[in-house]
Specification:
The chain is an alpha/beta fold and about 325 residues long. It has nine helices and 13 strands. Helices cover about 30% and strands about 25% of the residues.
Length: about 325
């Protein structure tokens, strides 16, 4: 028998304020057509004044707990993937723990848009090693707080939101027919740090800074590396692209999502895409997409999901999970 991290519940939360492309036209020189053509984005959500990353995370966590039918006291670890924490410290995860009353330990993971994949891999390691039995994994971001509102190539792309999942230890046979996380693949390459970064920080400028991105370079790396990491994770799981029921990719750009699916030979009918409604919510985008897809009845027990993401660092990775 093998100890597996099995998906028990999913939930999400989006701020009430919806910002369509038409409103972005009043903020920066752009157009609805320009944004949709280059990214596929039609609208995004922005957090309200005083609404913090931890607030979004807590609400997404509550939704996941409700979906799983699990009490907060039954959680023994909280992992939050975020690049936009409330404060330098304490971690957002400990704020969630304090609000919900979960047991055990809590920590943040920072891998920008790849953060949720890194957090899922970390949770899997804790569960498989026996250090935790039920882990709340959250991706939560308020990227609207680090936008350069004079850069029309970036500020129109991002939004705020949170998604959460509950992973639970279960004994399985140890084959790729098991429910749960079957394989993960993580990568990073700091040589490319300058193509996507925030130009501030505690040690460097004593300020949060704003996002800076070389869009063409990020696009080029994204398509190649996302397909590669997904294929590597599938190989580790002993599966092939034809075995995949759903790709749930990081929701950065519709063109990247489409090109990556083509490179893997997976039809778009098997790809979950929510970027049009949420924009790029960084570490929150995959769990948001998971939750929306589940609410739409797309998932069924036994199906194979591949989650893949790339973000600043560069950092990228994939998770193969059977429902």
């Amino acid at each position: 028998m093998t100890r597996r991290a099995v998906l028990r519940g999913i939930g999400h939360y989006l701020p009430a304020r919806i910002v369509p492309n038409a409103e972005m036209e009043t903020i920066v020189e752009t157009s609805d057509e320009w944004i949709k053509t280059r990214s596929g984005i039609e609208r995004r959500h922005f957090a309200a004044d005083g609404e913090l990353t931890s607030h979004l995370a807590i609400k997404a966590a509550e939704a996941a707990l409700s979906d799983a039918g699990v009490a907060a006291s039954g959680i023994d670890a909280v992992i939050v993937a975020t690049s936009t924490p409330d404060t330098t410290f304490p971690s957002v995860a400990t704020l969630v723990q304090g609000a919900l009353g979960t047991a055990g330990f809590a920590l943040d993971v920072q891998a920008v848009c790849a953060g949720f994949v890194y957090a899922m891999s970390t949770a899997d390691a804790f569960i498989v090693s026996g250090q935790a039995s039920r882990v709340l994994v959250i991706g939560a971001e308020t990227f609207s707080r680090i936008m350069n509102w004079e850069d029309r190539t970036t500020c129109v792309l991002f939004g705020d939101g949170a998604g959460a999942v509950i992973l639970e230890a279960q004994e399985r046979k140890g084959t790729n027919a098991d429910a749960g996380i079957l394989a993960t693949d993580l990568n990073s390459d700091g040589r490319f740090r300058d193509i996507l970064y925030v130009d501030g920080g505690v040690s460097s400028t004593q300020s949060s800074g704003v996002l800076v991105m070389q869009g063409k370079e990020v696009f080029r790396h994204a398509v190649e590396k996302l397909a590669q990491t997904a294929e590597t994770a599938l190989e580790k799981a002993g599966l092939e692209a034809s075995d995949v029921d759903w790709i749930v990719p990081h929701q950065a750009n519709a063109r990247i999502i489409t090109r990556t699916a083509q490179k893997m030979g997976v039809p778009m009918s098997r790809v979950v895409m929510t970027v049009q409604d949420h924009g790029n919510t960084s570490a929150a985008s995959i769990p948001l997409a998971l939750s929306v897809a589940k609410s739409e009845g797309k998932f069924a027990p036994g199906q194979v999901l591949v989650m893949e993401a790339i973000g600043g660092g560069l950092a990228w990775g994939a998770v193969v999970l059977r429902l």
